Amino acid sequence: MAEKPTSRITAVNGSNNHGNHLRPPSMKRHNTGDSDDTDFDDYFVGPRDLNHHSKWPIFLQLHGSVTPGMVLPLLFVGAWSTAITCISKFVWNLGIQSVLLTVLGFVVGLALSFRSSTAYERYNEGRKYWAQLAFVSQNLARLIWIHGEERHNDPNDPLLGKKDMLAKISCLNMIVAFANALKHKLRFEPFAHYDDLANSIGHLDTFAKRAGTPDEIKAPNAFKRAGKFLGIPMAESNPRKQLKRATKPVGNLPLEILNHLSAYMKSVYENETLKTPIYQTQSLTALTTFNDILTGTDRILQTPLPIAYSIAIGQITWVYILLLPFQLYKSLEWVTIPASIFAAYVILGIALIGREIENPFGDDVNDLPLDAFCVQIQADLDIIMATPPIEATSFLDSPDNKPLYPPSHMSSEGWLDRSVDDIRAALSYRATVNQRHNMDADELLRVKSQDGGPRKSSQSVRRVRRDVEQGGNANAGGGNAVSGQAAGAGAGGAGAGGQE
């Protein structure tokens, strides 16, 4: 299957938040919606493609499921419950009272609920930060592009306008670079040589640039790849390996990009290409928000659930699972084996989901698709830069501008020949039309709910439309020119009222 372009870029020999190395940086395929478009290599690795659509029922889907990570634990539980059942059946009855099911079950439920709610809170908070990043990026880019002056007619320097324009483009590129640098920082990829950064910040003097390119890291062997698939902790590598192997200081690349953005804002304040005080305040507020996003996401990354909680929850969970066969044997006998496996599947599944989304910035299937977010920010800013700074007259005075549609198809230029009273009468008529349309829709729903049938419904529609026309003419009448020309003006585009 041919590779398709996508929004995912990863670091050279990068690693995810659990230390599992990924393939070199390349653009991951962008699925078009067919369920067969997902390669097996992508099935259990990397944030899932939000555009991917599967026709399988949700309970049969494996893409995004934690089931592969439970294969070995469930095999162990099956062997354990089989051994306990066989010993109890043929050697010595090991069955005990099921009172522990109630006592320990309550504790396990509380522990798993705490773990899951804490993990999802972190996941949701991370998503909010990235949504805020997209919001602020669009606002700052629009402010700079529209309100930043380009001095094309300067007599002393004919190139000054081009310089202003290229400076604005460079600034917007740095906004995108900030998002990409933040993504790499959250994945413990501290350098500046990645495909989505090298060309956009190569001209900036940063610690990450001076640190050079990291030493090549060997691709994961078969054991580590299998360990990633099966969730074996011993197969996981240190996610901070690149940080530890750096021979020079790597600095804080997103923060350094903010420094350069601040320097640009200072320059436009001083040369008065962005001289309105409110715009200056908004731009500084945007940079402050960028810094808040940087520290907030770093707080989520660097403050996991305390290890004491994780150890205690893991121990309580496994004690409960291992005691299940002893408590179920008296009631279920041979059914103890599948019952124990199913109970372990439920308990371990909830625990693994909490563990996977605890750090939402990694490369697990259920982690946030940071690559897609960055590509979307890039696309949004490209759209902003795709057209010259817009002048309001270019669309307000357009002959296609119909300010009083739907009652009138007349352009704004045509309405300049009318009086203010005519315009206000048309606005009043339009309000009446909108209210009548709402009444029309409500009555249609009521008639259909009462099984009135098509004939009754069509009669209702005709009656309401007749009321709209009569009410509109009466409302706009009152001595205005609009009332007498309502029907003809709407049809011919010369009046306020005729067409709805």
Automatic annotation (TrEMBL):
It comes from the Eukaryota. GO terms for cellular component: plasma membrane. It is a multi-pass membrane protein. The chain crosses the membrane at residues 98-117, 307-328, 334-353. InterPro entries: YneE/VCCN1/2-like. Residues 474-500 have a biased composition (Gly residues). This is Uncharacterized protein. It comes from Periconia digitata.
